[in-house]
Specification:
mainly alpha; two-stranded antiparallel ribbon
Length: 266
Amino acid sequence: MKGIIKNQPPPNFIRWVADYEKLTGTTSYSWNRLRDINDEDTRTRIINEFGYCFEKKNLRLALLQEQGFICCYCCKPLTNDKSVIIEHYNPRSKSPENMFDYNNLFVCCSGIEVGDDGEQIKPKHCGDAKDDILEIIEENGIFVRIIDPLEKESEEVFTCEKSFVYDFSGNIFESNGNQNAAFTIKQLRLNHQQLIKSRALVLEEAFPGITETGIIDLDRDEAKLYLDHYMQLHRDDEDSELKFEPFCNIVIFFLKFILHHAKTIS
């Protein structure tokens, strides 16, 4: 996971929520009423009646942009299409009052992975795995919940970025016995075989040879430059959206480890 800094909600989303009853003819909140309108006549009628038309794809794009086009849970790259899930951190079924709370909305991957043979790899992860589960009481009586991408330990430190550790093979583990992190990994299936494989490939690309030797051949200054790159949004070309590197969380973890280790030695 990577901490998320929320922007202001799109103005038309605020307006849409305020006009919800007028737009739908009902006071019963239903997320499914916010959908992409494929019928041009319907879109024109709504614009003529209300002066604007807000669609789910507009909200999805705003959320993608603030997350740098990566999944809020596994950091897999996302594209602006219907394969992306608009995620309610507090599930709609349990917190209907938060249904249109912008700070409760993220985008995540569907959790669908396809193997080399073209067949879907089950089970799924992230959005599909989370479903409407946020928190549970385990058999030992301990209350655990999925870590919130917005939660901070301090003004500059996100809880999620201190709660997980990784190995050179791409596996993710809870940090220092963090039970919320352990539950997050288990519930979201963050050690799905395809996620492990993808993280290992990203590591190998960033640090050639690391998956075999466990050695990162960077000095402190080089590590700082690399960290600046992986912490920042960037464009693939002049016309593309600003994005984070896919699975940047695992690379950032090892770069911060190098910098901490170098600081400790010095």
